[in-house]
Amino acid sequence: MSRIDLNVKNKGGEKFRIAVIGTGGIAHSHVRSYLTFPNVEIVALADIVPGKAAKFAAEFGLDKARIYESHEALLDAEAGNLDGVSICTYNCQHAAPTVYALDRGVNVLLEKPFSATMEEAVEMMRAEKRSGKILTVGFQPRFDKNMQMIKRIVDSGELGRVYYIQTGGGRRRGIPAGDNRTSFIRRDTAGIGALADIGCYSLDMVLRAVGYPKPLTVSGFTTDYFGKDPETYQNSRDPQRLADMFGVDDFAGALIRLEGGINLDFRIAWAMNVNTPGDTIILGTKGGLRIPSTDCWNGTTGGPMTVYRQLAGQPVEQTVPLLKDQDGDGTLWQRKIYSFLDAIANDLPAPVPTSEIIINQAIINGITESAALGREVAVTVPEI
Fold first, then answer.
1. Separation CA 35–CA 252 (nearest Å)
2. Could you tell me if 296 and 286 are in contact, meaning their C-beta atoms sit under 8 angstroms apart?
3. 348: which DSSP letter?
4. Looking at the domain assignment, is residue 6 inside a domain?
C-alpha cells in the first residue's frame, strides 16, 4: 500500500460507524487517525474505569459518542449499529471483548500484541472463524515502505535460501511506566513485558519476510533486573512502588528453530546497558541483508539497508536507499486504519491475518515457557 484514500466510502456511501473499547494511551492514536477520515464517525466508547471514557470523549470533541463502562454493555447496545470496533484494552483483556464483538457480528481491529496466552489467541481465532467477520491485529510497521522492502528483497531470491536470522532491538532505558502508568508492567494486566510490547514487532518484521514458517523449538530466557530496581524510576514519586509492582520481563532472548532450516537469534529490551543489541541480519546462501537498528522500535529501519553478496568471485556491497513517504501516503497509523476500513467496505481479508500472528504469539509464549522451565521447549501452532 502507498497512497491512501482519506475519503474511503463505506457500503451504500454511509459513514463508517466505529466504537472504541479501552480509552487508555493507545486509543488516542486510533481515534486521532480515525478522525482524519471524513467518512468515519466514532459512535461509542467504553472503559471499565468510571469517567475515563467520558473524559476521553471530551478530549476529542466526541459529543455524540455514547459512553459505556464495559465492553458487554457497549456491544449489547450498539452491535447492530457498528461497522467495526478498535479494541485497545490491556494485554490480558484482549480476548474477552474481541470474542464478544465477533460473536455479535462486529469487525475488529485489535491492538497488538495478539494476546497474553495461546489459549486466548486460539479462542479469538475460533470466534473469527465462526463469525465470518474481520479480525486484524494492529501491526502498523507492516505499512512502512522500508519494512515492505525487506520482504521484497527476500522474495526476489537475491539472498538465496535463508538459513539464519538475527533480530531484536529495544531501548537503553525505556520501561513504559510511571506513577499513573502501570498497566504495562503489572502481570495481571500486561501478562508479558518487552517481549510482547515491542518484541512482537521485531519478530513480525523478519517472519513476514520469510513467509512466516512455523516454529519447532524455542530456547529462551527473560530478565527483570531493571524493572525491579527502584533506581530505574528516578522521576517517580514512589520508585519502590513501581519496582515492587513490576511483574513482567524487561529483556528477553531466544534461539528459535523454524521450519525450513531457519535459525532465528532474537533479543529485545526495554532497558539494557548498551545502545542496541545489534542490527537485524538475514543470511542466505547467495547473499546477506543488514537492517540497521533503531534507538527505540519505531516502525521503520534505522537507516539504509545493505545487501552483501559475491560478484565474479569478489565481495560486493549494495546500499538500499531509504524509501521516503510522499504526499498522499499518509502516516503509518492512517495506513493501518485505512486497511481496516477498506477491508470492511470491500469485503477483503484481514490486512494483518491472525493465521500469521498466531505464529508470532506461539514464539512469544514459547520463550516465556522456556524461560520459566530453564530449558528448550517444543512449540506447536494449533490448527483452527
1. 37
2. no
3. P
4. no
C-alpha to C-alpha distance for 254 and 237, rounded to whole angstroms: 35
**Residues 282 and 289: beta-carbon distance below 8 Å:** yes
Give yes or no for residue 173 having a pLDDT over 80: yes
Q: Is the peptide bond before 113 cis (omega within 30 degrees of 0)?
A: yes
pLDDT tens digits, one per residue of 64-107 = 999 999 999 999 999 999 999 999 999 999 999 999 999 999 99
CATH of the domain at 26: 3.40.50.720
Measure the CA–CA gap between 339 and 109, rounded to whole angstroms: 10
Say which DSSP state 14 is in: P
Distances (CA, A) of 348 to 3, 204, 213, 343: 18, 21, 24, 4
Verdict on whether the full-model pTM lies above 0.90: yes
Domain boundaries, position 314: 144-324
Cα–Cα dist 123/116, whole Å? 12
Contact partners, residue 241, CB within 8 Å, separation at least 6: none
Spatial distance between the Cα atoms of 366 and 218, rounded to a whole number of angstroms? 6
Q: Are 333 and 140 in contact (CB under 8 A)?
A: yes
**Could you give the CA distance from residue 352 to residue 113 in angstroms, rounded to a whole number?**
12
Q: For residue 382, give Cα distances in angstroms to 63, 134, 210, 362.
A: 44, 20, 20, 9
